[in-house]
Each structure stands twice: as structure tokens, then as C-alpha cells.
Amino acid sequence: MSATRPPHRSSPRFRHTPPYIPQPGPSRRSPHRPLYLAAEIGGQRSYDAAWYVELARLAERGALDFVTLQDSFGRPGPDALAVLSRVAPATERIGLVPTVTTTHTEPFHVSAAVATLDWVSRGRAGWLVDVSTTPAEARLFGRRPAASVPALWQEAGEAADVAARLWDSWEDDAEIRDTSTGRFIDRDKLHYVDFEGATFTIRGPSIVPRPPQGHPVIVVDATGEHSVETAARHADVVLVRAGRPDEAAVVREKLRSRAADHGRDPDTLRVLAALTIDLGDGERPVEPGRGSAPRTTAGDTGPHYRGGPVDLADLITTWHGTGAVDGFHLTPAEPRRDLERLVNGTVALLQHRSLFRTFHPGGTLREHLSLARPANQYAPAGGTS
Question: Is the pLDDT of residue 292 over 60?
């Protein structure tokens, strides 16, 4: 999609990003390394907003960093981004991260919608980037046939890239709102992105002012090999699936290395183990030869934990303590039951052990995740944006 140009054009002023050079510092295996926790609140289709508000508030009570809401063109259900826009005014601290596909959608509209969620939540928005791979999903739109998975993830990376540019196309102080002169915007602080990708062209600027976080948090599920590159280039949070901590550690180091290859500081990348949890059973006895490590099993959607809240706390403690991951993204098998047991049991125990905080230290999702607000790539160096 090509956005209409306003009458006046200002030239973009890009900042040069130097290659990342590792600096000496504390070990990533430090016992004081923060633990990050997130949860999925979908899984049981509902058209009642109160259902999602209840689950998000429950996660917020446990001081979780964010909740996700899965979405897909391949199944009926409410739009995840619209649902979380409804949840936003009913919550205060919890991060809100809907799945929004980059396939069959317009990047200009997606960036504006995610920026709007950041505004209505006062800086708590994220975006779980995904692609739509099936012919059935393509037929819903009728504009093009289903593309290959590598091509779709290349398009997803370009969509994430152009979204960041559109979020920066307004400098932070571009709005004047001077009633005496009738000037609403300083047009010299609006910028064109002039982006040409493989499947779309964007001129900009955005129709939404720069979001409160600068850039809403980008989340990518790096389970498939083709999504890894997009995650390493663009993600703030990466979801990985592994059955053992040593497997997760290998994936995490690979992602950090590839992020550094793209000029990023790998310490700004949060790698969370994605795990489906079924807390309907009690604690399990220790199996011979396994020590105190709780067991995970393979499932259709990745590793699956079945047991009690205490064993889950032990699993999280073990994986995080060895530096295998920065935290966990947990999908309850039964949303209300398992989320309640997660918050009231597992999280409470982690807090008692001083391994997880008891309150949100900041107001934005970036602050929860200890991520800095990005500088505006178009603003002059040393400016206010």
C-alpha cells in the first residue's frame, strides 16, 4: 500500500547504526538476572469481552510481564488486536500482545493499529508477528495464491522493518497543538519512509503519532527455521520451543549470535521458552535418575508440562538459573483453571523465593522487560525523539 503524500515533504535523516561490539560485563548467568513471565489467554474461543478482561486481570495480579492472544485467518473467532484494545482500559500494568499476521494485510494499517493499541494502553502494547501459510487463508482474500514459507517470513521481516520506520515517521514533539496560530503539527518533524519491499511499497508518514514506547514490543515465535532470521533482526522477545534446558540454551545462543551479526546488542534480546501447561494434576514423584528436574513431554504445539504448580516453579527455576532462557511464555491447557493455579501457586512460590517480582516496576511493557525506548531514526542526533 502506498500512503498519500502531504503537500510538504521533509527529508529523512537516518542515524547510522554501528556494528555491535561485545563489551565486558556481568555474566548472563548471574543469579540476579531478571526472570520474565508471560501467558497466553486464548485457547477457549469466546465473544464475551469480560472473559478476556478476567484472564488479563488475573495475569496482572501475578505481575506477569504480558499476555498474548493468538489469532489466525484459518479459524473463526474475534480479532485479537480489537479484543486487547477492549482489555486495555480495564487493566493498568499488564502488557498486551496480539497476534497480527503480515500476510494478506497492509503493513501501513498494521503499524497504525499496533501504534493505536500502544496509545490506548498507555505504552503496554506489543505485536506477535505471524504469517498465514495455507491456500484456504489465501482464498479468503482472493488477491494472491499462498506463497512459500520462506517468502512469507521475508515479507514479515520487511513488514516489521517498515512498521518501525512508520512509528518513527513522527518525531516525539511533532504535535504543536497551538490554538493561537492554528498549527497542529510541525511538518518538518514528519518524515517519509520511502520503503520498497518485495511485495509492497510504503511512503508514509504514519497517520498515528509516535507511540508512547517509541516502538511497541515486537515478539516473534522462532520455532520454524524460516522465522529465525526475522526474530534475530527485528524481535525484542523471541519464543522458542525446547524439551530440555540444554536445547534451549543452544537456541538462545544462536539467536544472540545472529542478532549481534545484524549490529544488535544481544543483551537486548529476551528469549522465552514456550511451554503448554496442564496444572490439573498434582505434583509427581521424582523419577529415578532425573533428580528434581520436572518432566516435559512433546506435544502437537511443542513441549508440554503436566503436573502441579510447585514442580512447574522448580522447572522454571532450573531453566532460568542455568541461563538457558530469560523466562517463559506459558499457554494454559484450560485457561481459567491453569492461569489461576499458575498465578496463585507457581508465581507465588517464585516470588516467595525472590526469583520473580511482586509488582510491575514501571508503566510500559518495555520497562517491564528492561528494554530502553528506541531513539527515533529520523530525528537529529541529540534531539528529543
Answer: no
